[in-house]
Amino acid sequence: MSRRSKVEELDTRIDALRAKIKDSEDLKVQEAVFDNHTLMDLYSLASRGIIDALGGSISTGKEANIFRALSAGRPVALKIYRISTSNFKAMQDYLHGDPRFGSIKGSKRSIVSAWTKKEFRNLKRAEEVGIRVPHPIAMRDNILVMELVTIDDDPAPPLKEVRLNREDAERVYEKLCQYISLLYNQAGLVHADLSEFNILYDGEPIIIDMGQSVTLDHPMAQKFLGRDIDNVVRYFQKNYGIGSRDEIISAIKSDAKAKGPAR
Ligand SMILES: Nc1ncnc2c1ncn2[C@@H]1O[C@H](COP(=O)(O)OP(=O)(O)O)[C@@H](O)[C@H]1O
Ligand SMILES: [Mg+2]
Predict the structure, then answer these.
(1) Which of 26, 119, 206, 263 is the most exposed place for a label (fewest CB within 10 A)?
(2) Looking at the structure, do residues 164 and 139 belong to the same domain, yes or no?
(3) Number of independent structural domains in the chain
C-alpha cells in the first residue's frame, strides 16, 4: 500500500471509530483520545510505515486507550495516553525521582510524552533482562506501539479473568517471583502497579502497563516493591492457597547476593 493510501485508510478507520463511539456513553473520553495532535502523530506513524491500519478498541482506562492496529502486517497494540484526562500531578511524582527524566516541566503534553517514553524504556529494559512483556516497537509523543499479546487472534486476558489449574498456578507464581526479582536486581526497576490486572496470560504470564515503573533511586521504590509483592501474594493466596511474601523477599535477596555488590 502506498503511503498516501495508508494515511487515507487510517483516516477512514478513525472516522468509523468515531461514528461508532458517537452513541456510546464514554463519548467524552473517546473524543479526548483523538485530538488533532494525536491524529497528526498517527499519520506520522502511518507515513513512516509503523502503522498500516487501525483496528477496534481493546480497552478504555483511566488515562489511556488501547487499540488494535497492524504494523508490517502484524497485530500490534497502540496505547494512546489522553492528554486532557491524564493525572499530571501523579505522573510528575513518578517522573521526578527518575534520573532518566529529572524534573520534567512544561506543558501537559510534554509530561505525557515523557511518561510514554518512560513506559517504552521500562518495557525495553524488562525485556532485555528476560522478562516477558509486549515487545515495544515504537513511540511518538503520547502513543506507544507494542506487540499485541493474543490467544487465537484475540487479545490475551488478564490473569484476573483466568482460572488456572493447580499445576499452572504454581508455575505462573514461580515465574512471577522470578520476574519481580529480575526486574529489581537486573533491570533496576520496580513495576509499582503489579497485580492480576496488569499481567496477561497466554499460557505464560506477560507483564504489562509499566508507565509508572520506577528506578531503584525513587524515594518510594521499596514501598512500591512491597506493595507489588503483596498484590501478587494476595491474589495467589486467595485463589490457589499458594505464595508467601517472605519467600519472594528472600528470593530477591539471594539473587542480589549472587549478582554481587550493586553497580
Ligand atoms: N500489548 C497488549 N496486548 C494485549 N492486550 C493489551 C496489551 N496492552 C494492554 N492490553 C489490554 O488493555 C488493558 C489496559 O492496558 P494497560 O496498559 O494496563 O493500561 P491502563 O493504564 O489503562 O491500565 C489491559 O488490561 C489489557 O487487557
Ligand atoms: Mg493496567
Answers:
(1) 263
(2) no
(3) 2
| CA atoms of 149 and 156, how far apart (whole Å) | 6
How far, in Å, from the CA of 258 to the mean position of ligand 1?
Answer: 34
Rounded distance from Cα 33 to ligand 1 centre (Å): 16
The per-residue DSSP string of 144-208 comes to EEEEPPEETTEEPPBGGG----HHHHHHHHHHHHHHHHHHHHTS-EE-SS-STTSEEESSSEEE-
Ligand 1, residues at Cβ distance < 6 Å: 58-59, 61, 63-64, 66, 77, 79, 134, 146-149, 155-156, 158, 197-198, 200, 208-209
Q: Are residues 115 and 169 in the same domain?
A: no
Q: Average pLDDT in the 28-50 region?
A: 85
Would the pLDDT of 35 be above 90?
Answer: no
Last residue of a domain, one of 128, 148, 168: 148
CA neighbor of 160 nearest in space, from 58, 88, 239 = 239
Kindly report the pTM of this predicted structure: 0.92
Ligand at minimal distance from the CA of 69 is 1
Report residue 30's pLDDT band, with 50, 70 and 90 as the boundaries.
Answer: low
Show which of 100, 125, 148 is a domain's final residue.
148
pLDDT band at 262 (very low <50, low <70, confident <90, very high): low
143 and 252 share a domain? no
238 and 115 part of one domain: no
Q: Which domain holds residue 140?
A: 3-148
Which residue lies with its CA nearest to atom 13 of ligand 1? 59
Cβ atoms of 193 and 212 closer than 8 Å: yes
Verify whether residue 98 is a known catalytic residue: no
pLDDT tens column, 142-171: 999 999 999 999 999 999 999 999 999 999
Residues 250 and 162 in one domain: yes
